[in-house]
Amino acid sequence: MMKFPRWIKSTIKWVLFLLVALVSLYVLGCAWYSWSTAREWVKLKGELEARGEKFSLVELLFPPIPDEANFFASPLFKEGGTSLAGKSEAYKTFPLIKEMDTHAVITKVPDDIKPTDSKGFHNLEYEIVQRGLRTKENKDQPAAEIILTAFDKRRDLWELLYKAAEKPGSYFPFEYEKLGDLIAYENGVIELTWLLSLRASANMMLHKPKEAARDVLLIFRLSDAIAAQPLVVTQYVRIACLRIAISNIREGMERHVWTTDELKDIEGQLADKNLIKSLAVSLRGERGFSNQGFSSIFEYKGPWGKVLKGFHLFPAESFLRMNMTSSSRLFQNVIDQLETGSRGINAMNISFPKVPEKYPKAGERLHLLTSVAIPPFKSIITAFAETQAEIDMTRIACVLERYRIALGNYPQSLNQLVPKYIEKLPNDVANAKPYRYRLDAPDKFTLWSVGFDGVDDNAAHPNDIEKGDWVWGHF
Hints:
Elements: H1 6-50, H2 57-60, H3 95-100, H4 124-130, H5 143-152, H6 155-165, H7 179-205, H8 209-225, H9 232-255, H10 260-271, H11 275-298, H12 302-310, H13 316-339, H14 368-373, H15 377-407, E1 436-441, E2 444-449, E3 470-471
Antiparallel strand pairs: 1-2, 2-3
Helix pairs in contact: 1-13, 4-5, 5-7, 7-8, 7-9, 8-9, 8-10, 9-11, 9-15, 10-15, 11-13
């Protein structure tokens, strides 16, 4: 039997001892890491749940509502009378959209005919040429009349949509795992909004304010129908709908077709639009969606779960839990700033952290998934704040137009509107102070917000969303 020198035996013993010690330290370290991350998560979750916060997307979803009360239960939002079956392009088969054939370019439009006019409103001639509606028989007929004739061919479907809009609730009948269904409904809402906007423009051209206002109010109903969906992407669709409606409202003011009654109805609808509140709800939904993703990895579902399941030497579940804690803390930080933004929503009052501040830079690598999970807060908040300012200023513009109709000119100051024309003026979403107003001529005014930088530039640089003022009519 071979004998080893004493120094070799001693070395082997020390190596084994060191290996056992290192393994023990690693196991203890993993145990501490697992315990500390679990404690941090339980602590944060407990603190926020005590405040009424919810951490899963399912908890944030409102329950399904009966078809008789559901706007989206209408056959107008079905594909051949059945569900959408996960088809993101299925909105093209919604009866109204299919009938209007919004995507077909039947005739090439000459280069000198543009989609919009110099003020950004619909160019109806472009629309009828694109859709092949301009023929030899109607070559001398106004484009607005041709547009309305095309809509009247399926008046029955449009009346069904107005009837569906009378239902008090709205709920997308789909599972959130099937995002294709969500996209289909949202695209359908955008397409219907565009068609309603087109018809509203045609009605305004023919001096039919009551009919135009009906179309604009239905756009508001479409935007409200998706307002409670707790995802940022859905709120962006809502913003798109509201911007289209506001363009129609501004067009009506430019053409001076609105009457006092229509302006009151429109202003009343604008008064209850709170995008900052909706943004906070959607950020909670994004957090729930993110946590749902982390939890699915805990359960070793999908390819990443299989990789982590096989990587036993690293405490993967603790790593994921730590990222879930840090991302949830970041979401809550932004939500709290939005909901307590008594100084306004601007770059000086809102902080936009990219990694958890409580961790040193040396630990940033451990929060890699947090950086992936959190959305681009700054760009999202800027877009929502700007659109809220546009809503507020459009509301004020409606009141100013009522003043002009009554007295023949616009007021010297916004204070002249209170309380006869409006009980209380909305404050600038950017700094929580009154919106800026300047009377340029008896029939012309400038209305603006100080913008996301919080600095009043006297209505300068309206096209710079982050550094310029937000000027009504220049969005």
